[in-house]
Amino acid sequence: MHVIVARDSAGRFSLRIPDGELTAEDGPVLDDEVRSVGALSRDCALAGDGALAGNAALAGDGAVSGSGVLVGSGLLRRDGTGAVVATALSAEAVAAVAARLEPRRPRWVLPSVERDYPALVGCGVRLRRCHDLALVEGLLLAFAGAHDRSRSLAAAYARVRGLAPPVETEHVAAPDEQPALFDPQSSGLPPGLDPADAAEVVLADQRVRLDRLDPSGRLRLLVAAESASALAAVEMSADGLPWRSDRHEALLTELLGPRVPAGSRPPALAALAQRIDEAFGRPVNPDHPESIVRAFGRAGLAVPSARAHVLRRIDHPAVAPLLEYKELARLHAAHGWAWLDQWVRGDRFRPVYVVGGVVSGRWASRGGAALQIPRVLRGCVTADEGWKLVVADAAQLEPRILAALSGDRRLAEVSRSEDLYTSLAAELHPGAAAEHRPNAKIAMLSAMYGGTAGEAAATLALLRRRFPAAVSYVENAAAEGERGGTVRSRLGRTSPPPSEAWRELTGGDGAEDTARRASRDWGRFTRNFAVQASAADWTAVLLATLRRRLPEPAGLVFFVHDEVLVHTPAELADTVVTCLSEAVDETTRLVFGPACPVRFPMPAAVVDSYADAK
């Protein structure tokens, strides 16, 4: 059963269950729901202000904890098509309906989980399954080579109906964003069109496209996994990552000195800046790279940039304080007191995750630098009393993905080891695995990222001889990119086509060297896209599978690329570890088939602090 829930630009929800989605088993429940909500709406009108205490009829077994209130005048009813519909519902009303329907395991259809789900989560709702129209539209547009087209509900509806592209002013705000006065928003939908009706049209169109494009069923798996990942992302933001503010404050004071007003240098940075001035014999702005480059030039040292790896090669008394300044200034700017004030509330770090925010399908974050928690701050990530953190990281995920994609049996055998690079070194340099592990890693990264110079070229040649199927796979992907083509991930993520500027460079009118360089650059992109996007497929399915398996009240609280953190009561920690192992096995079967010989180890550590897992 599909249940469509859509929110208008005023924040009111509409709900629609197409008649064809109902079964004989669902009918009596929904009939009860229609009567219950109808009676409740009448009572609300009598009570005034939409308030009604003791909403047991809709809450159902306490699934919406402490709800007791249904706000708004929305009423579930059957329309002329037999569909069950409701309009102008509050989030609390949708939560109450969801509590009754969730035991039937419907698939909820939302125009955008990132935009619409937070309000429902705030009312205590946790949906098991969903179809995120925006994420799915993005995947389908990319599949058709239309990455640059809007995936919003209004734009998708306009395409289905043959309308002009809409003007949209809605946006997803970060939690800390303040609304502007007199900031009108428009969904871009035709006037008078209910968003749930538009969502039904778009859903039907997406089903037709999936039927046409996806005979293997892989793209459907990606659609389900990406949508479930979107649910997990919103839930992780709501639950937050356990974060000890007191430890963070103490660490900042220890490293930077007492807190100073915004715009001022903390004492430690001020002292380092003075040492830098003394080393150069004149004032230098250590926050300005050009100032640093000029200072070294005046000292007779020509440097191409002020980057740390460049400075480390220089013999000058300013280098040591400069490097220390850079490290502490980065901490102060990215995770200092201002960051702590903005992003940590109630000892929980609550970032906003963006599912598929990178073209390869990797996640991004909207503010908070969620995907870049410095090692020095990981001690702040501490489980609550009586709870544990289960930290798991997929070991060398992308080389294993390449082994599975390419069907290279020899590389699959290498993947049986938990440390693939040591096993690879033993294959490339028998008898000297430990010594050659760094070279083996360079060889594999060269294959996936396109390095061909110096030591990388020699090791890549050796890799090509030992693992021809794996190397051919990425080289074919690179060749496709060099021709201006696109490549797909295992489940169907599609690389964007080159830009018009690229086509002009490589179309024969530009200089030959420039054209060749542009062609190779795009080939390097598609070479890595095939592997990295398939890794994003695998992790999306893993998140969906693990989220479904976890016992309550354990929950996902952090995810970055190929690492997950679960916050769990201590007595459930071993169960969570088992769930994780089973989720990895299930994910591999779903993505690569039951006969996949590649091993995907994801060792888990049960710890009190994130720092203890590293």
UniProtKB/TrEMBL annotation:
<dbReference type="GO" id="GO:0003887">
    <property type="term" value="F:DNA-directed DNA polymerase activity"/>
</dbReference>
<dbReference type="GO" id="GO:0003677">
    <property type="term" value="F:DNA binding"/>
</dbReference>
<dbReference type="Pfam" id="PF00476">
    <property type="entry name" value="DNA_pol_A"/>
</dbReference>
<dbReference type="GO" id="GO:0006261">
    <property type="term" value="P:DNA-templated DNA replication"/>
</dbReference>
<keyword id="KW-0548">Nucleotidyltransferase</keyword>
<dbReference type="InterPro" id="IPR043502">
    <property type="entry name" value="DNA/RNA_pol_sf"/>
</dbReference>
<protein>
    <recommendedName>
        <fullName>DNA-directed DNA polymerase</fullName>
        <ecNumber>2.7.7.7</ecNumber>
    </recommendedName>
</protein>
<keyword id="KW-0235">DNA replication</keyword>
<keyword id="KW-0808">Transferase</keyword>
<dbReference type="InterPro" id="IPR001098">
    <property type="entry name" value="DNA-dir_DNA_pol_A_palm_dom"/>
</dbReference>
<feature type="region of interest" description="Disordered">
    <location>
        <begin position="484"/>
        <end position="514"/>
    </location>
</feature>
<dbReference type="InterPro" id="IPR002298">
    <property type="entry name" value="DNA_polymerase_A"/>
</dbReference>
<dbReference type="GO" id="GO:0006302">
    <property type="term" value="P:double-strand break repair"/>
</dbReference>
<feature type="domain" description="DNA-directed DNA polymerase family A palm">
    <location>
        <begin position="374"/>
        <end position="572"/>
    </location>
</feature>
